[in-house]
Amino acid sequence: MSNRDMSRRSFLQGSVVAGVTVTLIPLSNQAFAALKEESVTMPSEQWLGTNGKARSRNDALSKVCGGKVFARDIRAKDMPGWPEQQGHAMLLKITKADHIYAGMDLSWLGAELQPDRIVTAEDLANDGIAFPQDHGPDPLLPVGQVPMFIGHPVAILIWNDFECFRQAKAKLKFNDKAIRYGAKAELYQTDPYGSFRYVRVGGATSADEDEFASLKDSILFPMLRNRRPVWDSQPDLHGDLTERGLYYAGRIKQQIDAPPDNWLVFDERYKTPSIEPAALEPDNGNGWYDTVSKTLHFVVATQCPLEAATETAKMIAPSRFALNNLKIHPGYTVGYGSKDHNIFVYYAALAALYGAGVPVRLANDRYEQFQSGIKRHPFDIRYQLAVDKTDYSFKIFRAEMSVDGGGRANYSSSVAAVGATAAQSIYYMPQNDLQVTAYHSRGVEAGSMRGYGTLQSMASTEMMVDEIADRLGIDAIVLRKKNAMVSGTKNTQGAIPAGALRLHEILDKAAVHEVWKNRHALKQQREAQDPYHWHGVGFAICQKDFGTGSEAPMASVEFTADGHISLRHIGIEIGTGMSTSQALVVADFLGSPASEVTTGETQWDELQLTTGGNPYTMSQAEQNNFLLDPRWVGKLASASSASNSAYYFSHATREAARVLFNHGLWPAALHIWSQGPYGGQANPYVVRREDANWVDGQLTANGMQPLSFAQLAKHAHDLGLITGATVHGFNRWSWAESEFEIGKTRVRLPLDGLAVKYGDGAASEKQAQMNSAGFHLLDRKTVHYPDVQLNNAAVTYYSPVATLVEVKVNKGTGEVQVLNHHSWIECGRVLVEELVKGQLEGGVAMGIGHALMEEMPLYEGGPGEGDWNFNRYRLPMARHVAVWKQTSEILPPLSRSDPAKGIAEVVMIPVVGAIGNAVAHAIGKRVRDLPLTSTRIKEALNG
Amino acid sequence: MANRSLQLTLNGNAAEPVDIPDDLLMIDYLHEYKNLTGSRLGCGQGICHACVVIVDNPDGTSEEVRTCITGAHYFAGKRVRTIEGHATRDDEGKVTQLNPIQQRFVDEFAFQCSYCAPGFVNAATVLVEKLQRQPVAKSQLEKVVEDSLGHHICRCTGYVRYFSATRNVLTELGLVREG
């Protein structure tokens, strides 16, 4: 299941969580008032070109001037109403995982540098702190226990002033003296975080009914015994779902173990490294607990502000602190997934809570970020692929994957599942058995990082397919074309991907690219010119899911009588440009983009939503029962993650704008066009809404007089039509749909929550209906939710990218240099081309790092010990990425109605496989463990 | 730790003298004493260059200096420009004009999260000022950009737009000669 919170249960009614009033205030509205800047974003006239396209990002000005954009930039003095004194905190951590923690000793710091407060596990227990279960147990290690992992925090140390903090931290850094170690002990152990098996046996063709598949039947779940997955059930064709699944899995294994003569069975292992996301803004938070009003004011860097707010409130509510209010301010941030579902938020909130009235800032430096920041999971993969040597068709795909989740449960379970369900890359697999288990280890916590398991599995698949082509003696793109999915074919779960698959278009383009066509001649030519290097060309392609299988976007669009359009959105800006692209999406229906954008908005009182149950694991009956409550939604709000802005965030923005058009602007236009005797200018013609067009910012249809947005906005307000809409959507690989009554019209919309505002001239009874935080909350008349069985689809939305790479390998050192690369990307409708290309360029660079240079020891000697930084961890620099030579091509959409597809993760994946294949082409040997360091290359050459 | 008074010129104005510890790093002075947080802490090792400021030398040259590894007292008496000081602002503090590098970075969508942007702006600004004294030959244009920006780390963008924007602005400003 492509599920980001498989084990989580969350609830939030209105804006009161566990008795605490939660208010989320975008940082821009608060801190910037104090700094004499109105907002991080500019009004649209400053960033919108006359052609209706973005001339720049709408947050560009603040960002390029070093404005206080990040939560990390905020100090107490920036926040209105806060005391000016700024306290500072750090986490004290234990770095030997094989010893009992016997307490701490800070006496050697001297009296002057003693922390003003020390928070330990004992304090949390005594004070009734209910730390979020998802991040437990033992956020602070109690005395007498063995650490769960290297770098387990034991205390929060708080100083009231910067100088004492700075000097004390300098002494504590790289110094184990503060930790008293007890006896040597067995390493901490716990059960695997999750284990899954996806078995499918298709019919004669993809279109025929599957004999067994996850979607049609079930995912298989093992028992966990002695820290390992075991299968207690016996294979039985006529048994229960698990027994049937095991029967088919057994049949698959028998076939691949005793293949017919015309099969080639590939069987190799791949290993991928632990990766530091290296978001340049390290984790941080800054909070002030006002002991008088019992209010926690909290500035925090997070990709999931609502989750952070909800869990923080629940954590503190039962404690002695008697929290009444939580005011949380999410800043613009960056994380590549590492600030999603991050335990650091709660340490920072606790530091503030224990500040004794002094604002406290907890902000990692880079060493601390390496030590405890969320990592990309290392995978250990065994792939088996059976191929018919006569027609080159893939027959059976088996995978056994082991995933190291580090020392604390995060999203390891779902990362493992998503990695397994992506393993097929772009290929149709008639039969598959994909097993994956995510394990605990004493390494640093791994979680949601860009790729979410798919980079690990798909890059390996792409190296496998290339190697198989070599073994078969055929062109690797020909082999790919032979097996690439086409529109309507099933994935390894038995689900049919959304819309058209344009993989063959991309493969056709790659096949005729000069570098690919001439790769062998190029190699000869370059090596003749440069005898000190081997030259190679490699290609890879993949398609990656976007979304989580439980997406819940929210947006609100309003316009004033003078034509000012504002957009509020649940999404947080993490660098991808969503605040710009969402502002533009509004123009689809309103003719002009939003001139004011508020991101990270989670104050949606007008919808009065409730939620409960787990959208991934609830039964159909449970869901049906929940739906009896017209306010219930499957999930309250999405994080900014999983490449979800272009499609899912746009869905909410578009649907809100569509409601405004259909029930505000269009009737206003008709009213204007129909003025005069016999229906005015509209009467002689047939005027249809489907013929409506915005031309140069003016609305026309069927030859009607063009009307400006300002004109229509005023008229819509005068008539009391709909001028504001707040929407909520839910997607489980398909959108929830509801019927609402808007005026006297019943409409079916791909939404499960809708509230509207009427214009200034609305009749008094309509005004009276706007009693839900200023909106008229509309009841769902009917609702249709995606069946819970769709959870087993695991993924249905894909975006494809392919990359062709040229490399050279130094014959002496084994060092690899990327000379050039070209990528093809298909992302449906392009919202802002520069943002798409920027994502691609950045993703390719990150992929190059993964392929060639980034790795760390997992345990002892690794980042958990607190002494890792960029001097030891090599990040790709401009000289590594072919900065001047790289090129790319975005496939044009099939039509203007194509949806925009998420691409933030997929862009970095094919380059990894392509480099692996290019190195193999260069040196004539396969290296299956990443990164492809000079050491591994020399080992391959000599082995 | 002994304290000493620090006096310097920050963004064209004499900064109010302040007693600060001998070992205080410049980045901490900027962040915690001056509330100028645009120079960003990336690594604390002088590797990523997100923290660089510009020092204007008496001879009219300018240079990048890494504030995460340089003591604040090193800057005593010096003229320092931070990212906050490049744009022209009106009386209310609103930006009325960006410097050419900033403008080009904005126009070419050069940054994403922008954490590293101040470092790139400063490095490219120093390059502009260097080439204003001695333009670069066209054949050396890309190399001079590489040499000037190549030590800065960006995790979001892949560097492409920072580099091309800098190349383009140098050409636009007439700092590239034939050859």
UniProtKB/TrEMBL annotation, chain A:
| One function term, GO molecular function aspect | iron ion binding
Classification via Pfam families: MoCoBD_1 (PF02738), MoCoBD_2 (PF20256)
| Aldehyde oxidase/xanthine dehydrogenase first molybdopterin binding domain boundaries | 265-484
Q: Which residues form the Aldehyde oxidase/xanthine dehydrogenase second molybdopterin binding domain?
A: 516-606, 640-879
Name-wise, this protein is Aldehyde oxidase/xanthine dehydrogenase a/b hammerhead domain-containing protein
UniProtKB/TrEMBL annotation, chain B:
Q: Which GO terms describe its molecular function?
A: 2 iron, 2 sulfur cluster binding; metal ion binding; oxidoreductase activity, acting on the aldehyde or oxo group of donors
| Ranges where the 2Fe-2S ferredoxin-type domain occurs | 4-86
Q: What is this protein called?
A: 2Fe-2S ferredoxin-type domain-containing protein
